[in-house]
Amino acid sequence: MDLKYKRKNVYEEADGKKLEEIYDFAAGYKTFLDNSKTERDASVTAQKLAEENGFKPFSFSEKLKAGDKRYFINRHKNVFLIKVGTEDVSKDGIRIMVAHVDSPRLDLKPNPMYEESGLCYFKTHYYGGIKKYQWTAIPLALHGVVVLRGGKRVEICVGEDEGDPVFYITDLLPHLAAEQSAKPLSKAIEGESLNAVVGGLPEVGEDEDKKDAVKSAVLNLLNKKYGLTEVDLQCSELCFVPAGKARDVGFDSALIAAYGHDDKVCAYPEMKAIFDCDSAHTVIAVFADKEEIGSVGNTGMQSKVISDVIDTIANSFKVNPIEVRYNSKCISADVTAAYDPAYASAFEKRNTTFINCGAAVSKYTGARGKSSTNDASAEFMGWIRDIFEDNGVYWQTGELGAIDIGGGGTVAQFISNLGIDTVDVGVPVLSMHAPYELISKADIYALYQACLAFCK
Ligand code: MN
Ligand code: MN
After folding, report:
1. Which residues surround ligand 2, an ion (CB under 5 A)?
2. What is the C-alpha separation between 201 and 367, in angstroms, rounded?
């Protein structure tokens, strides 16, 4: 019997067959990720996959029965996948998995367009926690939707196909950056300077007002292609995200660099788990929106919508929804910071998670004296540990960085507010919130195994 705890490395113990499973799973994830850069994109992808897996649209007024598979897309941005089991939900509760599908990015301002010194720009307002300097001098793609007068929705995605143009935010050349380089990192690039170049070709015409000729030409292009005028941008949700696809990292392709691992690296395994599990429990998988700005609004996890879904299930079986919630269990599936030897002082090595060492279980997150966190009970930690151990899940535990270095929260606190036992289980990430983040294929596979064990 091992008296000492030792963290295990998934790859060290993986044989050829296991390694193949891990790499195959990662290939599916990369395809999902490339099609799901924003919460809107992820919702479209999820709906398509749900339909392929036999899920049907959900209605708040329907009577669900065992065996039913439903999907509910809340306002294009927030997904609920529901699989009704044979167990009595008033006693057994619901197995809930929640991951978020919004990621840090640059949203367009309501009046984004202007011309300056012969170039046309879009002004942006950053969404979520970013290091602003990381978003200059990289290729950007534009994703989102514009609603025209009369209500017609126009979807826009430019910069992802090989032949597409991309967009670009400039930085100052090092030759002239002595003053900029002396500033603290957080001040070197200001939010108001994150303006993306979107055009440079002036309109030429005899009667044309020469002022803002590039902006006029860009508006002409937008009008021809999408039927929109400048004022329509006030009724849009458009954002710049890093252009390009997820890429394998390392000679051995053990890792993946991509935009938006936080938190699609957890959304994909929980979705796959609800598709693949054969369970007597009722299971829900949620793709949440607005996590990066506090889980606010009617598509964020602070809203009542999840409770409404649970109530609908309870009402279907004429049982008390309070009992259903009280007996439910939740995995808040979100990423955590993996130990990074280049920035060792930000971590406490005995209590951090390591890349390649499996699903990351965080009893609590938060900041300072555990402020703003769910703190999973010893009993629930014990329950989840048994489930993972019984099913051979590789898992580890750790905190998000050293004490008083910073911190962060997840949706766990909002789920547990409903009376539901909740614990954070996710994937360790390097360079979290950077335009390209880094994860291990072993860890996303371990989270999939963890979600399968939780649903079982
Ligand atoms: Mn996250
Ligand atoms: Mn985040």
Report:
1. 262
2. 49
CA 427 to ligand 1 center in whole angstroms: 10
| CB 105 within 8 Å of CB 259 | no
Using one digit for the tens of pLDDT, what is the confidence trace for 125-162?
A: 999 999 999 999 999 999 999 999 999 999 999 999 99
Which residues neighbour 15 within 8 Å (Cβ) at sequence distance 6 or greater?
Answer: none
Q: What is the Å distance from ligand 1's center to 100 Cα?
A: 7
Residue 200 structure tokens: 């440079």
89 CA → ligand 1 middle, Å:
29
| pLDDT given for residue 200 in this prediction | 97
Average confidence (pLDDT) over 409-434: 97
pLDDT tens, residue by residue, 200-241: 999 887 555 678 999 999 999 999 999 999 999 999 999 999
**45 Cα: distance to centroid of ligand 2 (angstroms):** 21
What pLDDT, on the 0 to 100 scale, is given for residue 209? 61
Are residues 168 and 158 in contact, defined by beta-carbon separation less than 8 angstroms? Answer: no
Q: 5 C-alpha vs ligand 2 centroid, how far in Å?
A: 30
Please report which ligand is nearest the Cα atom of 410: 1
